[in-house]
Amino acid sequence: MNEFFTLMKSELLVTAIIFLLLFIKIGKGMKNESLLSLVQVLLLLNFIAGFFFNKTGNLFGDMFYTTPLIAFQKNILSLAVYLISLLCSDWLKKTGHLPEFFMLMLSALLGMFLMISSSNLLIFYLSLELATIPVAAMANFDLEKKRSSEGAMKMILSSAFSSGILLFGISLLYGTTGTISFPEITAQLDGSSVQILAFIFLVTAFAFKLSIVPFHLWTADVYEGSPMAVTSFLSVVSKGSVAFIFITVLYKMFQPMQDMWYTLLVILAIATMLIGNLFALRQQNIKRFLAFSSIAQVGFILVGISSNDYMGIAAVVYFVLIYVFSNLAAFGVAAVIAEHTGKENIDDYKGLYKTNPFLSWILALALFSLAGVPPTAGFFGKLFLLTAGGAKAAYWFILVAALNMIISLYYYLRVVRAMFMDKNDNPMEPIKVSPVVKLALVICGAGIIMIGLLSWIFEYIKSLH
Amino acid sequence: MMQPGLYHILFISAALFFIGVYGFLTRRNLITMLMSIELILNSVNLNFIAFNKYLWPGKLDGLFFTLFIIAIAAAEAAVAIAIIINLYRSHQSIDVENAEDLKY
């Protein structure tokens, strides 16, 4: 019994917060401001509690397992949700359904926790659905906006379609192996053509969720249509959790097929980086721009995954940690500007430095980190990913990835140039950033710089193995 | 009379799956697209039941999986229909061709 509470502690904590919100909702209710601060404090406690009592073990007849590394991955996701609740507090205060919003968001988070910990295809499927269905409802949260409902429609249809494909793959896998538990499937894999078909179906479903080219088409539309809080949740938390479970599925379940998936990952990674970068070049809307940039970043994550050793896992976890800070800083600045002025185009950012130096510096730092310019943490994240990807000695592959980083510099620096150098006769008014948002932006900025400089963080992730 | 075997059922489920995929990709009405997804999910259910009955009758993994898929499909349809109703309120149509604000 005691083991149950220690091993499932993060899931139980999130569930407790969801129920608390439910009781507040059906009870007398609270004012938005006080409820938001309460939720922020609870999420912070949830994040801090994630550091303690992390043990290895499994529950429910091997359906659920956890290790210190998985606990660390969950902690990254909790941190991201906490930062989102701070960054988007201006928008959240105004929304009429604050408890529902957090209930949906935390249900999705709970689904992601269970998904990362799953060791059985049944619980994996259930938690994957728990992680996607609430997000579609969240995408429609701006009920009166046309674009919001259009984005939500695209999200729910593509995710339902991809889970149908996933299920067909799982059913074929079950038919050929007779089991749905990861380790037993690994023992039964013999590379027959039905299993290869099942593998392709599974990878397709993952490609949908991670928005890997050629299954990326929903990403930009959903990102643009959704409210900013949901967009940042989708791009950071959803992507991160699916990347973690993708590693588990490839490294553990499909280990016998490693030659096959290595080739597949190389092709997918090159296509994803190239197409994400080329489409990002011509975007005018900042949300769409960040959407395509996040597609390109997923391509780099795939480079790291292709290594098939522990260095790959450590590099991906480290990169996701950096990605949380840099992407949330970029989305946070965009959210503040969109909330106060309603402007989302990159052209509107011209001359931002004259009037809003703080926001410009944070956004510039975030974009430098996303591009991978040395003093920021993004450089070290990319460095480790490419080092891990080089384990197979396919140096032309690493060269293509490095060339893609140069392409990406162009469009990231385009935004920086618009903010700092372009002349604009009527730039945006000075925006008064509320203290909570400022705190979150400073945390993100500090994270971007410090994570790269403190080498023990990467050593710590490597030691969790 | 010939008893239906595993291959007959697999043939039907594969056909249902690809009819569903075809319908999802060609239909322009959102409700019909949702129905196509249900076809895909039901083909998966058939697959699980057939594999469980003919190949692995000892354990009930496939049967349980089917029960969970039915429940999740209902939840998914509920959220999707709520979103479609909201889309109809703003666009006055449930044709995907009319939901084209977000492009490129």
How is this fold's topology laid out?
The complex is a heterodimer of chains A (465) and B (104).
Chain A: H1 2-7, H2 9-26, H3 32-49, E1 57-59, E2 64-66, H4 68-87, H5 89-94, H6 98-117, H7 121-139, H8 146-177, H9 182-188, H10 193-210, H11 217-225, H12 228-253, H13 258-281, H14 286-305, H15 310-341, H16 352-355, H17 357-371, H18 377-389, H19 395-420, H20 435-453, H21 456-463
Antiparallel strand pairs in A: 1-2
Chain B: H1 6-26, H2 30-54, H3 61-91
Helix pairs in contact in B: 1-2, 2-3
List its traits.
heterodimer; A: 465 residues; mainly alpha; two-stranded antiparallel ribbon; 2 strands; 1% strand; globular; B: 104 residues; Helix Hairpins; 3 helices
Explain this structure.
- The complex is a heterodimer of chains A (465) and B (104).
- Chain A is mostly helical and 465 residues long.
- Chain A has a domain at 259-465.
- Helix content of chain A is 77%, strand content 1%.
- Chain A has helices at 2-7, 9-26, 32-49, 68-87, 89-94, 98-117, 121-139, 146-177, 182-188, 193-210, 217-225, 228-253, 258-281, 286-305, 310-341, 352-355, 357-371, 377-389, 395-420, 435-453, 456-463, and strands at residues 57-59, 64-66.
- Chain A has a two-stranded antiparallel ribbon with strand order 1-2.
- In chain A, helix 6 (98-117) runs parallel beside helix 12 (228-253).
- The longest helix of chain A is centred in the middle third of the chain and has 32 residues, at 146-177.
- In chain A, 57% of the residues are buried.
- Chain B is mainly α and 104 residues long.
- In chain B, 74% of the residues lie in helices and 0% in strands.
- In chain B, helix 1 (6-26) runs antiparallel to helix 2 and helix 2 packs antiparallel against helix 3.
- Chains A and B meet through helix 7, helix 8 and helix 11 of A and helix 1, helix 2 and helix 3 of B.
